[in-house]
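Let's sit down with a protein and look at its sequence and fold side by side. Which protein we use is up to you, so please pick one and set it down. Label the sequence line and the structure token line clearly, so we can match residues to local backbone shapes. Go ahead whenever you are ready, and we will take it from there:

***
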Amino acid sequence: MSPADTGALTRVSADAPADTSASPAPAPAAVDMPAPDAAPAPDADSRLTPGGPGYRRMSFALFLAGVATFALLYSTQALLPLISEDMAATAGAASWTVAAATGGLALFVLPMSALSERFGRRTVMTASLAVAVTVGLLVPFAPTIGWLVALRAVQGAALAGLPASATAYLAEEVRPKALVTAIGLFVAGNSVGGMSGRLLTGWVAQLFGWRVAVGTIGLVAVVCAVAFRLLLPAPRHFTAGSLRPRVLLGAIRDHLGDPLLRRLYAIGALFMTVFGGVYTVIGYRLTDAPFSLPQGIIGSIFLVYLVGTVSASTAGRLVGRLGRRGALYLAGGTTAAGLLLSLADSLPLVLLGLVLITAGFFAGHAVASSAVSRTATHGRAQAQALYQSAYYIGSSVGSTLGATAYHATGWAGTVALGLLALAGVTSITLLGTRAARRTAATRTA
């Protein structure tokens, strides 16, 4: 089996000169080459658990990484009307400042996950944040919409080292019973980053313009990145994998061949299609009649992300009570109810709809993401990378199609797109339920 399959240390053979004598050549010497982040793996009982030493530092560090990731990734989303006005761009063109970032992440998450298998989760996450925050400080100086979209694509590609590496780190360093809760806390950091980024940019943009607002997010991300690197404990259970294409492609083939993982990837993509579409377009809806809200108030709307923080961090308890599929049904139904409420021309009902959409989305995402980590038995970074790739492709599709639908038919078109995606979530979850019943019946037969 490959090192990636067994978890063994990478073996490097020393080159030996050819021997022309009759005696057989000596076997090449083997040298153990641990990864830069790796330490000798102790017994599995030493993995982190809530209340244990190091768990709080680890949770807070990854929470900050989640904050920085979502704040940077969606830093332009609440500012699209201002970007459209400043750069004379249509809603569809401005939406590419979001779609390019999420698309860059989706394209590069697999290569970055391969690097994390070889060089370590913490090393790759640190490098990714460093590049992303550097680009973030350049974004405010983009002279045209084309340059802005290009810089955002680079920023998204840099951030690709975070999501899959973080969840793989948790799967290796946290005890299995605490994994859903730990990943839920990381996802909660995503929600806080998304909320604080949009809230901060809304008010700063109203006073100083969208460029100063985006630059402010870059500075906040710098602080989060430094604190993350100082706080995150060194990995104790990581062993280096291989960068050989055959090994990596084998792991990817195994994951794509697993029916459960395929369903989870599709569910993540569909949930994010809904979320990406809603939050890309909501700024335009609230600036138009009958609401006509100023930019600062629109930024404050994103306080509803706090609901996502709660729903993501409690996903473990939800799965404990309802099971994984039950939790996904509840998350999908909650999101659908929110979409229908948001059709009203009443601001309180629209806000309630956003609360339900956010709660359902973050719960569904936390459940699906943690299920991927528990299902994969090897190449966890690749398994999570495939999930993240599907997830952010869903975001790009939702952002672009949601804006296009809004431009063509209004908010009702964006809602219809979301309901169609949620119908897919329900159908896929139902297929999983039937497959589980068939498996149970076969075992008892």
Observations:
- Residues 1-36, 38-44 have pLDDT under 50 and may be disordered.
- DSSP finds 17 helices and two strands in the chain.
- The first helix runs from residue 3 to 6.
